[in-house]
Amino acid sequence: MEPNKKAIELYEKMWDIYQHDGIAIECAIVSVDEIINTGIHLDYIRVGAHMLSLVEFYTEVKVELNK
What we know:
Blueprint (H helix, E strand, L loop, with lengths): L2 H16 L2 H17 L6 E4 L2 E4 H12 L2
Antiparallel strand pairs: 1-2
């Protein structure tokens, strides 16, 4: 899954709960920060033809959410 698609997926899940754009984005960012801060460095995810660590992937997801 591409980081921008994951960002949209997380936003939509938060939107379903809170029904407010700003709150949904903030909650999605908090969720991503929690994943990044766990320090998971050994797991990888395929993004297109590349492999990214989960930290790298979710850092890119956070960039997408902040756009």
